[in-house]
Amino acid sequence: MRVALCAVLVTAGLTVAGPSQAAPAGAPDGFASVAALGLSGTTGGVGGPTVTVDTTDELLTAIDTVGPMTVQVSGTIAITSKQGVRPNKTIVGLGSTAVITGGGFDFYRSSNVIVRNLTFTDAEDDAVNVGQQSHHIWIDHNTFRRPVDGSIDIVRGADYVTVSWNHFAGTDKSMLIGHSDGAASTDTGHLKVSIHHNFFDNSRQRHPRVRFGEPVHVYNNYFLGNELYGIASTENAGVLVEGNYIAQVANPCHSTGGYADSGPGRLVQRANVFVGSGPCEAGGAVVEPRTYYPYTLDAATSVPGLVASGAGAGRL
């Protein structure tokens, strides 16, 4: 099976190496590491071939291939709209100059996928859309610039997702969890997401905006100059906000008052540092993430240095 697959890939113009025995340096933590839904965690393309792509056709062929695969992105590749990614893939940029421009990745009932070390620019819709019961997705060390819509959406019953060490550089709608106030039946009990060590760098809103998800664990992130708000917990979502450094954000948190047309959510905040920022609206109880996974919290005062120097593409 692997020999036949490799032969197809060679004729498609891809550079194929041997089977990948391990993910690139580092391993997922948070919800992407949790054993659930038939998976022991998120391993991506481990066990499959490694291919290097530097054209649009090569990339689209690789992410649409059935079976495990590590896809190494070289240089700048232009795509359109949102392109589907099949399960069991690691998509990782080579070096510090791998760019996906014009479009993004879409997860539709996909699972066990790692997206790392890429810069997404000028996506005509969402840069990364995790939807339709997709699960065990790790989005790590990427940079997001100027998507027309969201940088990352996690919606429609998606679960067990970790978003870590990303740089949201002046983005507008950074991260949506739960797409609609009318999605209670599909989203309640799902949308378990860990969000840590991200740099929300003068991005405007949705860091994240949450409906129904619980727990959504927002920890050790650096919020800087977020114009509209930091975090919004709505529609009975349960969000734990801890150990973050929040600077120059007039509205760090919405929860008990809801947000826009969405009803109230629950939000617990602890061990955060607020500098030149307004109060964090908090209230209610939230399921503890420690019931799912262990984690070590960095001191909030250390977060700006850690995150500004370590988040984003090219910093693996």
From TrEMBL:
It is found in: Secreted. One of its GO terms (cellular component) is extracellular region. Coiled coil: none annotated. Residues 1-22 form the signal peptide. Pfam families: Pectate_lyase_4. Keywords: Carbohydrate metabolism, Lyase, Polysaccharide degradation, Secreted, Signal. Residues 46-252 form the Pectate lyase domain. InterPro entries: PbH1 (IPR006626), Pec_lyase (IPR002022), Pectin_lyas_fold (IPR012334), Pectin_lyase_fold/virulence (IPR011050), PEL (IPR045032). The keyword Secreted applies. PANTHER family: PECTATE LYASE 18-RELATED (PTHR31683), PECTATE LYASE 21-RELATED (PTHR31683:SF18). Belongs to the polysaccharide lyase 1 family. This is Pectate trisaccharide-lyase. The lineage of its organism: Bacteria, Bacillati, Actinomycetota, Actinomycetes, Micromonosporales. The gene is pelA.
